[in-house]
Specification:
The structure is a single chain. This protein is of the alpha+beta class. It contains 4 helices and 6 strands; from the N terminus they run H-H-H-E-E-H-E-E-E-E. It has one domain: Nuclear Transport Factor 2, Chain: A (Roll).
């Protein structure tokens, strides 16, 4: 049984497509992705410490959500800008962020770490973020943080003994 010329061409093309599909994908440059993510993340405390609510909000996706401690979820970049504008206006303190862990996988990444606010006594907490690669670059898609327990108050001095 002989194959026609068009059948041989079709079979050859099908074989080439199959072989091409089986080729391993080119390795992605995760170091470049991690560096770009870190650069974007470093912009958050800078914008906040500069009291720039617009700059903070620009680091979030249009459909981002933030979950602040003791407050309702905030959804969308405009609402996030309003939230941070109020936070900066009413209770701003210099923020320090310490990144602990992260991972990039394609167009998604996550980061965790700790933060502290320069108030007396110092306020500390932890955070977890989900980032998404967008045409604008890496942006926060979900952001949640908590506040560690406040430091214990100094013990009160004992009352003087009654006079006898």
């Amino acid at each position: 049984m002989s194959l026609s010329a068009s059948a041989r061409i079709f079979a050859s093309l099908a074989l080439l497509i199959t072989l091409a599909a089986c080729q391993p994908k080119a390795a992605t440059d995760t170091a470049a992705d991690e560096a770009a993510l870190q650069a974007a993340a470093d912009s958050w405390p800078k914008a906040y410490n500069d009291k720039n609510a617009d700059g903070v909000a620009a680091l979030y996706t249009e459909d981002a959500r933030v979950y602040p401690p003791g407050a309702a979820m905030v959804s969308g970049r405009a609402a996030i800008r309003d939230y941070f504008n109020g936070d900066i206006t009413n209770s701003w303190a210099q923020i320090t962020v310490a990144h602990e862990e992260s991972n990039v996988s394609g167009d998604w990444a996550w980061r965790t770490g700790t933060w502290s606010a320069a108030v007396t006594p110092v306020l500390t907490g932890k955070y977890a973020e989900i980032w998404r690669r967008t045409p604008e670059g890496w942006r926060i898609h979900r952001d949640i943080w908590n506040v560690d327990a406040a430091p214990a108050a100094a013990p009160a001095e004992p009352a003087p003994a009654p006079a006898q």
